[in-house]
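Posting here for the record, re: sodium ion.
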Amino acid sequence: MKELEERIAREGTVKPGNVLKVDAFLNHQCDVALFNAMGAAWAKHFAGKTITKILTIEASGIGIACIAAQHFGDVPVVFAKKAQSINLDGDQYVTRVFSFTKQKEFPVIVSKKFLNAGDHILIIDDFLANGQALAGLIELCEDAGATVEGIGIAIEKGFQGGGDGLRAEGYDLDSLAIIDAMDAETGSVTFRA
Ligand code: G4P
Ligand code: NA
Ligand code: NA
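Prediction output follows.
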């Protein structure tokens, strides 16, 4: 998606450790018009599919997923939680994932009320790096017997391999910008053609 690549090139900054900072428009300050265009792009890509629900993970995925939902007939958006809430009401699907990016393990939790065997899920998230967070979301869908129809990602760090792994597994993955290389010293970002 040209518009997103341009924003990354113009406003993104490359930090040491292969971290791209895009908090001016994606995950601190949110550019709603850009989110809306991203939602339209996913709607076009996944047009042939029936989506009953969008699944994401807190925190940065939520805003993007909610705007995207407006392009999928206002389907509900469920976000997985990363911390056990104090109010436990009934059963939950739980898994644990280790984030290489953040160098820590965290739980991924969704109430059984909100993920069902009849659901056709579109997973949405802001970043795809090694893909551990996504693997956790997919696992919860499998636990629920829900069908993962597709995965929509804003920015895939292609050089970290999570996306190519999911494609090899047969998932319909639509990343709107795929970065093949970036350099903290020069600040350069190279997109996959
Ligand atoms: P991992 O397996 O390497 O840990 O990567 P994964 O794709 O699971 O992403 C883990 C978390 O790290 C995600 O945050 C993702 O958004 C974030 N992340 C990965 N690479 C980058 C990067 O280059 N820049 C930025 N800004 N974030 C990155 P999350 O679990 O969704 O948490 P939250 O930040 O949304 O709260
Ligand atoms: Na995220
Ligand atoms: Na994030």
